[in-house]
Amino acid sequence: MSDKKVKTAKLTNKTAVGPNSEPVKDKGHSRLSSESNGTSEGASAPNELSALEEAFRKFAVHGDTRASGKELHGKNWSKLCKDCCVIDGKNVTLTDVDIVFSKVKKKSCRAVTFDQFKEALGELAKKRFKDKPGEEAVEEVYKLIEGKSPIISGVTKAVASPTVSRLTDTSKFTGSHKERFDASGKGKGKAGREELVDMSGYVPGYKHAGTYAKKVKGSKQI
Question: Bias category Polar residues: which stretches (predicted)?
Answer without folding.
Answer: 31-42
